[in-house]
Write a structure and sequence with these properties.
Strand content: under 5%
Number of helices: 7
Order of helices and strands: HHHHHHEEH
Number of strands: 2
Helix content: 55-70%
Shape: elongated
Number of domains: 2
Radius of gyration: 25 Å
């Protein structure tokens, strides 16, 4: 049996992607043990032989789930690294005092670094009090350090 590890043509890449999607759907619906190769190729709309052109077995189709999760996490961390400053600004804007409700807002400053830090508004001698947990900021710092932003 000849099994290719990757599809060299655009049609082959599409066929492999269809098989992967059909396998994922079948695994999610029925569980790993209940899925048969026949279920996957029928769902994908290809022949039994076509399945074996791209995958040796159900195990090969399923792949290494830990590697897939790790790859997805790495993509997420790269996206976070590229956008973390914007996300922090959006969080800061979302938690800012509403001037129409509480009077003037305090000057803009970086988000708190400590979990449980409290922040007091400037209006009316103490004004509206709001609490920021800082938990999200703690995660931002950890991710930023991991990907080399801090």
């Amino acid at each position: 049996m000849i099994v290719r590890s990757s599809a060299p043509t655009s049609k082959g890449r599409r066929t492999r992607a269809v098989l992967l999607q059909a396998g994922r759907e079948a695994f999610e619906e029925h569980g790993y043990d209940a899925v048969r190769i026949d279920d996957v190729w029928a769902r994908a709309g290809v022949s039994h032989g076509t399945f074996h052109t791209y995958f040796r077995s159900k195990e090969a189709l399923f792949g290494d789930p830990y590697a897939r999760v790790e790859a997805a996490n790495r993509l997420y961390l790269r996206a976070w690294a590229a956008n973390s400053r914007l996300v922090r600004m959006l969080e800061q804007a979302a938690t800012a005092d509403d001037p129409s409700q509480n009077g003037p807002s305090p000057p803009t400053r970086p988000l708190p670094q400590h979990v449980g830090q409290q922040e007091h508004g400037a209006a009316g001698g103490g004004g509206a009090r709001r609490e920021r947990t800082g938990a999200a900021e703690g995660r931002v710092v950890a991710v930023d350090e991991e990907v080399g932003l801090r």
